[in-house]
Amino acid sequence: MTDMKRLIATYALLMVLSMIVVSCEHKELCYSHPHSAKVSVEFEWSQMPAAYSPGGMRVIFYPRNGGEEIVRDFVGKKGGCVEIPSGVYDVVCFNNDTQRVKYNGADGFSLIAATTGVAQVGDVKVFRTPDYLCGGRMVAVEVEVKIGCEQIIVLPVAPMVCRYTYTVRGVKNLQNFSECVAVQQAMCSEYSVGGDNEIQESKADICFAMERNDDVITCWCYTFGAADCDVYKTILYIRTASGKMVKGEYDVTQQINSQKGHLKNVDLVIDTDLDLDKHGGNSGNFGFDPSVDEWGDIESDIIL
After folding, report:
1. Is the pLDDT of residue 296 over 70?
2. Which of 97, 177, 241, 300 is the most exposed place for a label (fewest CB within 10 A)?
3. Please, which residues bridge with residue 40 across strands?
């Protein structure tokens, strides 16, 4: 072999060795980063009415290593596939087709709470009632990279609100009824999505519209449940056809205490002797318009 051939062979060998070294270094860099895992998200609906079908579901993955949360939305109730970094996560889910529900502390699993907007009733701040809300949670879910298959995560779904119904009997001269707003005192204004419970420290008043139904005034609404309290009162503000404002205040403590529980539905019956012809004064006496749709949301935080 000539010197030139030896030189060419040596150069070629060095080039091959250089490529091998670069390839090995590349693999080491790759392994030092987290890999994405394919996850199939499913929902378990056995705790929900069979006919219930949300417009969509939101899933939030909270990494236990303190990284940023990962948010994924799914159309309908079937779920779907996502790719997320491998790791250990706390996970929450809830229906994302609500209009009035807002979320506080959404950047933390233990902090995220569902609530609603705040309205002004005279000098009093009250919370609106929520839309229907359901969801669930799982803790310490380990997501791993698996070759040739997807990991399946099944999230349980249960109600996060309960239903309150109201029937007001005995109102005289209901033909003069125009509209009514009720305020229910001592209710929970938040629900802990990550903790799966009513937030008792969020005790507040809630408001909702009522309507005439033949010889009674009725309504139903969703709530986050009753707060722990010694006394529960319902306050009715009725506007008559002539513009008068009629107010009635009723103790419903016994009824709520006999029915309340963790997100338990409650039926309330209020008997009254209000007379829409004889009681009440002009609209200025109460200092607010009782039409819920006309109340504006207050965007500032409310400290309870």
Report:
1. no
2. 300
3. 81, 152
Ranges 213-217, 226-230, 242-246: which has the least confidence: 242-246
* CA dihedral for 147, 150, 156, 160, sign (positive or negative): positive
DSSP string, 118-175: EEEETTEEEEEPP---EEEEEEEEEE---TTS-EEEEEE-EES-EEEEEEEE--B-GG
The answer to whether 81 touches 40, Cβ cutoff 8 Å, is yes
**Which pLDDT score, from 0 to 100, does residue 289 have?**
45
Tell me the residue type at 23: S
Cα 133 to Cα 130: distance, rounded to the nearest angstrom: 8
Q: How far does Cα 188 stand from its chain's mean position?
A: 13
The amino acid occupying position 280 is G
What gap in Å lies between CA 77 and CA 237, rounded to an integer? 40
Q: Compute the chain's Rg from CA coordinates.
A: 30
**Side chain identity, residue 256:** I
List, in sequence order, every residue forming a beta bridge with 184; answer none if it has no partner.
Answer: 206, 234
Decide: pTM greater than 0.90.
Answer: no
Residues 6+ apart with CB under 8 A from 21: none
Distances 220 to 144, 238, 268 between C-alpha atoms, Å: 46, 17, 10
Read off the pLDDT of residues 36-61 as tens digits, 9 standing for 90 and up: 899 999 999 999 999 999 999 999 99
In angstroms, the CA 126 to CA 204 distance is 7
